[in-house]
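Why do we care about 3D structure at all? Because function follows from shape, and shape follows, mostly, from sequence. That is the central idea of this module. The next example makes it concrete: a single protein chain, its amino acid sequence, and then its structure expressed as tokens.
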Amino acid sequence: MIKAGVLRIAAITGFFALTAFVSGCAKVEGAATNLAINLVERRVLPPQLEIADVDMGCNFAQSNFPLLNSALRAFHGDPSLIESLLYVSAAACSEARAVEEELRYLRASKENRIPEAQDARIAQKRLLELTARRQLASFEVMRNKLEDKYHFSYGDKCPDFERDFDELVYLLGTVAGLQAVVNDIASQQMVGVPTDIAPKAERALACLQNGKWWGAPNAARAVVWSILPGASEGKDIWGTFRLSMTIGERHGVRLSHVMYGLSALAVGDTARFRDATKRFANVKDFKPSKQYRLVEALASSTMLNLSDRYWTENTGTRTPVGAMGKYWDEEAAMPEGMNVDDLLK
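And the structure:
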């Protein structure tokens, strides 16, 4: 009886010893993995942000996200901030494909090819759903990680940031959240993105220095002011865009120009949309940011997508090469050798 009791105690003791050993290994692995993640954030990602190739960046994110996610978390690491950036990059790929389907829809509609137009619209909405899911995921992992790290409530209080990297992810993740709302609505709310992201994001963006981040925080806030009922009261929306664009031009990142163009299209102001593209295309002595060249490349790609939609809707073809900020009814401003009449046939 005593022997059985001793064996039982020994077994229990052995179990707790094994549990403690495994737990200790997990803590050691987690510490080592998080050290590696910190090195990636400080040493590996900065050079990636200097690459001016959106297609390369988004394809890298799509291909490597599952591997990075599973490998780092398997060893008890927390790569949330890296994941947030990868979701942003992956969303650029699916959004570009959605734009292609929208252009196909517009061309088919103009030519009265109803079945193809319907098919293109369905394909577009599916891709917008995927894009909204990725953008929402970027927003959520950013918010959850930074709330846990800095002990604040997103949209209610401001974190006391320790690193520029955290601020960058906070900004891009917040913008992704706003995009998720818009794309989910366009996909007939297949994802169910919470619409209260918009007012929370507007308050959260006030925590960032507008001048430090290319004018993008206030430009994104101005987007919210322009789309939320009653939010524009007492706000100089278009003046905010103009100031933010000036800051972006000086810092080499024209993200504010894209937000200006998006807001103009959202309210049907084609004159301001044209102004956005003209200003984007005609910045004197513009020098892209070396440190954030990929963000500038993403802004350029998005602005071209907006221009392509506008051109295709009106002429049946996307923006001609060299014609960003130039239009079919402004013949004197068209590229040399281009026949405007051919575009309108």
